[in-house]
Every structure is written in C-alpha cells, then in structure tokens.
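SUBJECT: A protein chain and its fold
Encoding: whole-number codes for local backbone shapes
RECORD BEGINS BELOW THIS LINE
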Amino acid sequence: MPSLIRFVVVLGVLGGIVFGGLYILAEFFEPVPKEVTKPVYGIKVRTR
C-alpha cells in the first residue's frame, strides 16, 4: 500500500509541474499577432 501512495503522489507532483508549466506558458508568453496573406488559386473575385 505505501508504494501505491508514493506512486499517486509522484503522479500528482508531475501533473502539477506540467499544469504549472502550461499555465506559465499561456499567461506570460503571448505570440506576436501578424497579418498573413495567401493567394487562393482557382477562385475568381467578382468586381462591380
């Protein structure tokens, strides 16, 4: 039984580290927005 508790604690700590790392990445490292233009071949644009 102690090995099961140790296993669950280790999984909880690793999960917390992963969750914390993802939270830090999401909150403090925002990507720089930029405009992307791509030609779409095979489509004609109608003009008035």
Notes: Residues 1-48 form one domain.
